[in-house]
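Supplementary Methods, section 5.1.

A reviewer requested that the exact input to the structure prediction be made available. We therefore reproduce it here, unchanged from the version used in the analyses.
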Amino acid sequence: MRKTYFIQTFGCQQNTADSERIASLYEARGFERARSLEEADTLIINTCIVRDRAEEKVYGLVKNLREKAGSGPEDLHIVITGCLVGAAAREPSGKLMKRMKARLPDEEFLPMEDVGFEHEPKRASGKLASVVISNGCNNFCAFCIVPFSRGRERSRAFGEILHEVREAVKAGRTEVMLLGQNVNSYGADFLMEKIKEGGEYEIPGGKKVRPVIVKHLGRHRIPTLFPHLLEAVAEIPGVEKVMFLSANPWDFSDELISTIARHPNIDRLIHLPIQAGSDRIIKSMNRWYTRDEYLSLIDRIRNEVPDAEFTTDIIVGFPGETHEDFEATMDIARRVKFTKAYIAWYSPRHGTAALKLGDDVDIHEKKRRYTELDHLVLRLSGREHLIGKESAGKTL
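The structure derived from this sequence is encoded token-by-token as follows.
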């Protein structure tokens, strides 16, 4: 009888893409994908810990499965992977690892670093191929645990990414989603090495890029390869649509805007997180732009790409956020008229810098701000009919 596996994925689209590679790893080991959890010998839980509640879901799921099994851990082999394992492995104090082992004593832990890109993803049916181009993040936003759960930013080889896209097209995929925690800083690590060497980076096909660090508004902006990668993917025959997540406004260069404008198959719906509309809160979040810089970027994109639309991420009730700060966020929403905003109200997260800032906005006020902002975005996007029908809010 063949061994079977089932993957339960929590969190973002990058986790979903990682699960496709995990599936390939297990099938290479002789496992067969089960149609449901109940039919599986092995359950792989790909975890997310952006929110405390996501971590608790994992513990709760495992507890329920163990209680249901009744006769011990040999009935179902459970493997824990993803951001929970990554954060535990990187935490200097070891407290998270101890807590994880105490609450998951019979489980196997699989670091995502052990699931290499040599495993071709086992994709779900459909026309979309999600392609991971980098992993980790160097930005250390005050509210975010990603640099600790996934580590510092590491880019995949340019040619390796193009190979994966071409293989996906051969398999009938016509849409490509390029994924990274900070997708548009792709290749910065490669270029910084070239700066140290005093050399150039050669893109597959022979084009050479000489990296230069640009000083912008008193800060240094590192060079990236993302505009070149995005163009190369858009030019692959058979690719009808290219999307990317998630972009940082600070790394959204004029070169990237021009690349989007030149290629009509690059998606015009651009996800550009603002997180807050107040300069004071943006700075407290350790985000590297101002509201005016963000609005200027929106204007530059719209000037070159007139049919561009924008989605965003916003946190309400961040530590220290006053009514005036919140009104600044409302003002940004009025000016940009986002097609959609993914709004969360702030809650403290262990392992993040924001934990030291306290949590001084009342939960009822957070929910009120969430609702007011959500309704504004829905009205401005022409989706008033969804008011009261979508989620009542979520915590960060």
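The radius of gyration is 22 Å. These observations are discussed further in the main text.
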